[in-house]
Design brief:
alpha+beta, 8-stranded antiparallel β-barrel, 4-stranded mixed beta sheet, disordered N terminus
Length: 413
């Protein structure tokens, strides 16, 4: 038995340690998901799972499915079936339950009955409900794309219960309760982690407060509580994630194979045939004239060199320190209105190639989106994710986006 428990613990530990080697989950929103869940419920009403004799845990198994709209919100439907076990609380142990389903202070002559202390309640449950998940990590730029999630989840459900009151001594049924339906309101706290592109695991804990009669089937007296508290595990599968990032993964983009050469420098004074004594234009005007002249004469003859934009670890947005480089790229594209380019994203070697390909594409998309926001036509820019760069000098040099001019003759594979 000990060996089996140790193996199970090792397997569960591996599930949580494995994703730490990847950079991030790189989710594409929106998407659908489905999964299974199982938990341990505890019920508190007239009887309680935390009874006078011992704690009586139940079990629960269910299915769930939902739709995630963005990094913050998702809507989820659930269906679950299980059982809640309860027994008397210390304060109610002296009471006596008659076969007529009334509570008495002492046994009644001529009436069959049982002391509360010798009874337990077994409640079969079924639950159908909706819950709204709000991922707190999705509110922050640094964590909205993280593989981890931390959800606060208000929920509404219809819960059906059917109690069976049994004796503790031999487990025989003393009173068979009626089936009841309750409207329940409550919520969960959930922590989850995406293990792969599609597989995710999580833990949850929450409470559902039931309306109506007590779930245990006993006559109410001192205790008005009627709720179920449950903790458990969830295992889910994501599908239908076909956003624009996913569609562009692996798409070829044309770039030149030639080596880059330094950009043309335009800080020389233009030549002039003005006679002696004629006023010389101001330097700023001369520089503008020279820039326009050189651009016109060399646009087709000279190859342009683009700066490389670097990203911090787990970063997918162009940082303030790299904006001057982005503006240089913008200036080149404005000066060459017919030029088309490929922006190529890279990652370091931390994490799997599959995850890093998506993550590098997000970096390329960040540069493309910035340029498009500044007025460059989206059709002029092709975003490509190349994943891990195993040849970079170090991790800082690997996390980058390169910009290259497209040519019809050669393409990125």
């Amino acid at each position: 038995m000990f060996k089996h428990k140790r193996r199970l613990f090792t397997a569960l530990l591996a599930l949580f340690v494995f994703p730490l080697t990847a950079q991030e989950k790189a989710a594409d929103f929106p998407f659908w998901y489905i999964g299974i869940q199982g938990g341990v419920p505890f019920g508190i009403s007239t009887f309680s799972s935390f009874g006078a004799g011992k704690t009586r845990a139940g079990h629960d198994f269910g299915l769930y499915g939902g739709y995630r709209f963005n990094p913050v919100l998702s809507l989820e439907a659930q269906a679950a079936w299980g059982r809640v076990n309860q027994s008397t609380q210390d304060c109610c142990a002296p009471y006596w339950l008659g076969s007529d389903m009334h509570r008495y202070e002492a046994p009644v002559a001529g009436l069959e009955g049982w002391h509360y202390a010798g009874l337990k309640s077994r409640v079969a449950t079924q639950r159908y409900g909706l819950q709204l998940n709000m991922n707190l990590l999705g509110f922050f730029a640094r964590t909205k794309d993280s593989r981890w999630s931390l959800d606060i989840s208000p929920a509404l459900a219809a819960i059906g219960t059917k109690s069976s009151i049994r004796t503790i001594a031999d487990g025989s049924e003393a009173v068979k309760g009626n089936a009841r339906w309750h409207l329940a309101a409550g919520g969960n706290v959930q922590a989850g982690c995406r293990l792969t592109r599609n597989l995710h695991v999580g833990i949850y804990s929450g409470v559902a407060c039931l309306t109506g009669d007590a779930m245990d089937g006993l006559p109410e007296y001192r205790h008005k509580n009627n709720f179920i508290w449950e903790s458990g595990l969830k295992l889910g599968w994501t599908f239908g994630r076909k956003g624009k990032n996913a569609r562009q993964t692996g798409v070829s983009a044309c770039i030149p194979a030639k080596e880059e050469v330094p950009a043309v420098q335009n800080d020389a004074e233009p030549e002039t045939d003005a006679p002696a004594g004629r006023a010389i234009p101001e330097r700023a005007k001369a520089e503008e004239t020279a820039t326009a002249s050189v651009t016109t004469e060399t646009a087709e003859a000279a190859e342009v060199s683009f700066p490389v934009i670097y990203f911090p670890f787990n970063g997918t947005e162009v940082t303030v320190s790299e904006l001057p480089k982005a503006r240089r790229i913008l200036g080149i594209l404005n000066a060459h209105p017919d030029m088309k380019v490929a922006v190529i994203g890279w990652c370091d070697t931390k994490g799997s190639q599959e995850v890093n390909e998506r993550y590098s594409l997000r970096r390329a998309e960040a540069v493309k989106n910035w340029l498009v926001e500044q007025g460059i036509e989206a059709s002029r820019i092709q975003a490509v994710g190349k994943g891990s760069d195993h040849h970079a000098a170090d991790a800082n040099a690997a996390r980058r986006v390169e910009t290259k001019e497209q040519e019809k003759e050669e393409c990125i594979q």
